[in-house]
Amino acid sequence: MRRGQPRGPLGSHDRPASALTFRLVLAVFGAVAFLVGAVLAMTMTDSLPLTVLLVAGFLAACLNVFWVSRRRRYER
Known about the structure:
This protein is an all-alpha fold. The protein has helices at residues 20-44, 48-75. It starts with 19 loop residues before the first helix and ends with a helix.
């Protein structure tokens, strides 16, 4: 067997499953939390800097969701 190739199916003793699914759930939760915060900042307060900060956090969280989903797809 060549180096770098998986030895068994994902989740077996030779190739344990990673925690990427849990990281994806956490990333989606973070994106939703930033989205709710940004919407509440726009509607309930008139603070433009807070809204801009939360929207930037939401965009970064969406990038994290994309990155984790790509890593999860690549691992399969």
